[in-house]
Amino acid sequence: MAFEIRATGSAVPPNKVTNDDLAERIDTSDAWIREHTGIGARHIADENTATSDLALEAARNAVAALAKKTGESAEAVAASIGFIITSSVTPDYNGFPSVSCLVQDALGAKNAAAMDVCAACSGFIYGLEVAAGLLSRNAGQKRALIIGAETLSRLTDWEDRSTCVLFGDGAGCVIMEKTDAPVSGDGARGLLRSVLGAEGSGKEALINRRGGSREPYKKGAVVERPPSIEMDGRAVYNFAVRAITGTIEKLLAAEHFTIDDIAVIVPHQANARIVQAASKRLHIPESKFFLNIEEYANTSAASIPIALDELERKGCLSPGNAVLMVGFGGGLTYGGNIVIW
Ligand code: ACO
d(Cα 22, Cα 39) in Å, to the nearest integer? Predict the structure, then answer.
């Protein structure tokens, strides 16, 4: 039983905000942001667009791509989805209804169970493994829609230059299908292996502290600042380099692969310097890593599926290519997958 990625989709808001645009509002510069992060711009949702709107647009793109491939109608593809799993740290609502339920309704995925997973920027990586587990246990279901979607601009303190330059909005997704293809040896297809992990002891390094059950907003209290991302940038940087290198090493060893067996590494797009440090430590050429952070900045759980969709649309992925995805994020969480395209 194989769990193949059959289609991808993505969506970003049209409003592109460059580093120079930000430099007009806060004390920063294009040169600083590029040199320290590799970021050139980010796309920011308008006030009428919430996370599920971006998730839905990405999902519709993936459904249309699969319908084109198989000759099914878009309605039939939507109805064939058995599970929707979305990862987001910026859901439309605090807790419920989930983004997945909102997408399920709007997409017409009337036969899908729907839930969100909470693993911050590693959420899409976790979502792929959760989806494969659900599909393997449910004989009657053959497809799952796995989404990463964020409107991080809503969780950004736009007066804090050390964080606000880093983030952007967007959504990406894949449709996974259970098939009879082999999962090892020649002709292997789909999700081969995942490595998932967490270091909850690092929770303070990346935290959205206020507005939850530990620090709820109280009636009558003045909310001076909306909830926002608090980050110890140096601690996250060190964790990220360690998480990326360790996860890549574990995935390659478990599959008895060398780096030459991997067509492309798709890392979470948090900071180009994190990827450069990991590539140096692992002696893997930087060219093996796909980066589009310059255009989109850090879109958390959406960054890996947005990158996958770009690679797919540009024709960079061929059947049989091994794609290694690796992510890290709040929690702290980390993980990676190897998928044969
Ligand atoms: N523009 C200009 N100067 C700035 C800016 C800015 N936007 N931000 C910080 N600075 C200044 C600081 O004030 C500091 O000045 P000082 O030396 O006078 O005190 C100087 O630049 C250096 O600041 P550092 O924080 O040491 O800069 P560093 O090189 O470490 O880069 C960064 C900071 C980019 C945040 C880095 O630590 C990093 O990438 N960390 C990991 C972040 C990450 O991956 N987060 C995960 C994302 S969270 C999620 O995905 C939901």
Answer: 12
What is the CB neighbour count within 10 angstroms for residue 152?
Answer: 28
Identify the CA nearest to 147 among candidates 119, 127, 118, 176: 127
Could you tell me which of 17, 19, 8 has the C-alpha nearest to residue 59? 8
Q: Would you say how long the chain is, in residues?
A: 341
Q: Please, what sign has the CA dihedral across residues 69, 123, 50, 81? A: positive
Domain spans in the chain, listed from the N-terminal domain onward: 1-341
What is the Cα–Cα distance from 269 to 258, expressed in whole angstroms? Answer: 23
pLDDT value at residue 28: 97
- Which CATH number among 3.40.1010.10, 3.30.70.1650, 3.90.190.20, 3.40.47.10 corresponds to the domain 1-341? 3.40.47.10
The CA distance from 57 to 10, in Å, is 7
Name residues contacting ligand 1 (CB within 6 A): 28, 32-33, 36-37, 120-121, 161-162, 165, 206, 231, 233-234, 236-237, 240, 270-271, 274, 298, 300, 329-330
Helix, coil or strand: residue 30:
helix
The answer for residues whose C-beta is within 8 angstroms of residue 172's C-beta and 6 or more apart is: 8, 9, 10, 11, 58, 124, 147, 148, 149, 302, 303, 304, 305, 306, 307, 308, 309
* Residue 185's pLDDT band (cuts 50, 70, 90): confident
The answer to pTM > 0.90 is: yes
